[in-house]
Design brief:
23% strand, 171 residues, single chain, two-stranded antiparallel sheet, alpha+beta, 5 helices, four-stranded mixed sheet, 29% helix
Length: 171
């Protein structure tokens, strides 16, 4: 289901906050182009969510202090839903905004993390998926919003990391 990767992200964030982990690999894979998957999608999903798309996404999640200590490159900061800039683009399914299914197909189990990874790369490169420049000249933020098949909302706010270690500064 669309939110399985985001559920793994939420568990990783909780474990990081509790100090149970120093880092987490969060991932999801979906092979939506397989015949059995297409048949299930046809039986269970509305037509606009039946565009098949295979995807595999893995992200490394760390506390910012640990990433800085380790000299890691930080592409974005992920936090729970909260107030974002008015012009922050929304990535996800089940809400108005940037949806990837028309571009890459609908990779069901990997869909949430695929939208998250896309939002992170857009923040980092300061471009939206179709190549448009980011709207805000100030701090860039994005919102990841997904409504899973059970109707539960998942929402995360992403911000660019402005305090970049010198070895990764663009020169």
């Amino acid at each position: 289901e669309e939110a399985s990767g985001l559920c793994a992200l939420e568990l990783a964030k909780r474990s990081l906050r509790a100090g149970e982990l120093d880092a987490a690999l969060v991932g999801a894979v979906d092979m939506s182009c397989e015949p059995v998957h297409r048949a299930a999608a046809a039986a269970l999903l509305p037509e606009d969510r039946q565009i098949p798309g295979d995807a595999a996404v893995v992200l490394v999640i760390k506390r910012l202090s640990d990433a800085r200590r380790d000299g890691d490159r930080v592409l974005a900061l992920v936090s729970d839903a909260g107030e974002a800039h008015v012009d922050a683009p929304v990535f996800g399914l089940g809400s108005p905004g940037i949806e990837l299914a028309p571009i890459v197909g609908h990779a069901h189990a990997a869909s949430g993390l695929l939208h998250l990874a896309t939002a992170v790369l857009c923040l980092h490169h300061r471009r939206l998926p179709a190549g448009q420049p980011w709207l805000s000249p100030d701090e860039r933020q994005a919102v990841l919003r997904l409504v899973d098949m059970a109707g539960r909302p998942h929402e995360h706010r992403l911000s660019e990391c402005r305090d970049v270690p010198p070895q990764y500064a663009k020169g």
